[in-house]
Amino acid sequence: MKQIAIIAPTASGKTALSIQLAKETNSIILSLDSLSIYKEIDVSSAKPTIEERDGIVHFGIDEIYPNEKFDVMKFIEIYQKAKEFANKNNKNIIIVGGTSFYLKTMIDGISSSPEISFDVAKQTTQMLLDLPQAYEYLYKLDKQYMEDIKPQDSYRIEKALSLYLQTGIIPTLYFKNNPPIATIPKNEIKLFEIVWDREILRQRIALRTKVMIENGLINEVIFLEKKYKRDIPPMGAIGLKETLEYLDGKIDKKRLEEKIAFATNGLAKRQRTFNNGQFEDVIKGDAKYLRTEVLKYFNISLDNIEI
């Protein structure tokens, strides 16, 4: 079994390329997307439809409901399920999507974490009511670890705080004694990145935003709000949060389209920066070039394939 990952900013054409390659390389696809994971979030996630998937088995799409918890550990669990299926059915794996943080975590590894008791979770929640004070408390205990965490990073502060309160061990020492274990060793996966001219990518993002609105984005958000209210994490995602502003009468439809496109361009910039800084030995190019490189990697002859 071979494994590859196709990374790139949003709206780069990763989905179409991955489905084409899956058919040519006898692969299944694992979606690396923090919104496609949710059932009922279809338009705003731009997940491929059943027809677009063209018979290719997908994992990481429609796995959980919007009000269910999702984190990197859940993604690793889904990867393990995909790998088991691939091994059982003699398939390869193509990992594809824009949430590269999960891929980075699987390659670099993640340390095991202790189970947090109810009392510790309650104490952590109480201390986080004053985030600056919680940060200062941890900083005094473990300056080395906390120097890499921003005072506004509530997620990582919460994790460090609950870890210390549960174990009595500062994070630096805990992770030294519990080194990260890679889910996918670096020598078992090859990385490919689609590269676009920034202006062309902006045009693609603008077009995709327009199509999303035309395809029912507003109705989707109305449905989600009615069923789940506004206090679920996906409601803070690009596309959904701007649509809530529209539904509140704060912006008109033209401004809605502009705001989503603007936010998506910002996301694309952050994705490019992350990919450039976090991954090494990546084959980069346009979709056509990458297709030929992937086929070569899978030892598939190009003689009878139209490129």
Care to describe what's here?
There is one protein chain. The protein is α/β, with parallel strands linked by helices and 307 residues long. The chain folds into two domains: 3-109 and 182-297, P-loop containing nucleotide triphosphate hydrolases (Rossmann fold), CATH 3.40.50; 118-177. It is 53% helix and 9% strand. The chain has 14 helices and six strands. It has helices at residues 14-25, 50-53, 72-88, 100-108, 118-127, 131-141, 143-146, 154-167, 171-177, 198-214, 217-228, 240-247, 253-278, 287-297; strands at 3-7, 27-31, 58-59, 92-97, 190-194, 282-285. Strands 3-2-4-1-5-6 form a six-stranded parallel beta sheet, sandwiched between helices. α2 links the parallel β2 and β3 (58-59). The chain is globular, with a radius of gyration of 21 Å.
Topology overview:
Layout: E1 3-7, H1 14-25, E2 27-31, H2 50-53, E3 58-59, H3 72-88, E4 92-97, H4 100-108, H5 118-127, H6 131-141, H7 143-146, H8 154-167, H9 171-177, E5 190-194, H10 198-214, H11 217-228, H12 240-247, H13 253-278, E6 282-285, H14 287-297
Parallel strand pairs: 1-4, 1-5, 2-3, 2-4, 5-6
Low-confidence stretches: none
Strand arrangement, major sheet:
3-2-4-1-5-6
- Helix and strand composition category: alpha/beta
- N to C succession of SSEs: EHEHEHEHHHHHHEHHHHEH
Sheet of most strands: 6 strands, parallel
CATH topology of the largest domain: Rossmann fold
**Helical content band:** 40-55%
| CATH architecture tag of the largest domain | 3-Layer(aba) Sandwich
Which homologous superfamily in CATH is the superfamily of the largest domain? P-loop containing nucleotide triphosphate hydrolases
Shape: globular
What is the overall pLDDT average?
94
**What is the end-to-end distance?**
24 Å
Q: Tell how many strands the DSSP assignment holds.
A: 6
Continuous helix count: 14
Highest CATH level, the class of the largest domain: Alpha Beta
Q: How many domains make up the coordinates?
A: 2
Fraction of residues in β-strands: 5-15%
What is Rg? 21 Å
